[in-house]
Write a structure and sequence with these properties.
Elements lengths: L4 E11 L4 E6 L4 H5 L3 E4 L2 E11 L2 E6 L5 H5 L5 E5 L12 H4 L3 E4 L5 E10 L4 E7 L2 E6 L5 E5 L4 E4 L6 E3 L3
Parallel strand pairs: 7-12
Antiparallel strand pairs: 1-2, 1-6, 2-5, 3-4, 3-6, 4-5, 7-8, 8-9, 9-10, 10-13, 11-12
Length: about 170
């Protein structure tokens, strides 16, 4: 089930003396988060006056937040975005839409388990799949991903030796 609002980052502190906040984005890059004119914090819309990338962070000026003290109210708060304002390239999916999907072996059609976590590693993301006392660590690259279909509720993967671990002990 898809939700309208997606968690996209967290406010980790303030920046400067004019009430800007520092946000750690949970997406591909800070640039993505800078493209929104409204964030949702604690379920309420907050207008973004400006946002710019700064290394791996986003520095944002939020409406009604003009001092360090006002900015500190947001520290530790999760920043969400409205998915209706996003068009993803073909073949790209929000991680939130993948978690919980059934993962199938493309060769046999058998269910390996459910996608429980996506590890954001330097080389590529890695899918953590658990089921039946087993755990699979599957690189999220085309060689291993035969089909990704959140609409149908599954991901089909090409397995090779070494991706599986017995975790029943």
């Amino acid at each position: 089930m898809t939700t309208q609002f997606l968690e996209a980052g967290v406010v980790i502190g303030t920046h400067g003396v004019r009430g800007e906040v520092r946000i750690t984005p949970w997406g591909d890059s800070p640039d993505f988060l800078c493209g929104f004119d409204t964030f949702y914090i604690d379920g309420r819309p907050v207008k973004v006056r400006s946002a710019r990338p700064n290394k791996t962070l986003v520095l944002a000026a939020l409406e009604g937040c003009d001092t360090v003290e006002q900015a500190m109210r947001y520290k530790g708060k999760v920043v969400s975005i409205d998915r209706t304002g996003v068009t993803l390239p073909t073949g790209r999916h929000f991680v939130a839409d993948l978690i919980g999907l059934s993962v199938l072996d493309a060769a046999t059609g058998s269910e390996l388990g459910r996608l429980e976590e996506v590890l954001d590693l330097p080389a590529q993301n890695v899918y953590v799949v658990r089921g039946g006392g087993r755990e699979y660590l599957i690189p999220a690259v085309p060689a291993f991903l035969a089909e990704t279909s959140p609409e149908k509720g599954y991901i089909r993967v090409n397995l090779i030796e070494g991706l599986e671990t017995d975790v029943s002990n």
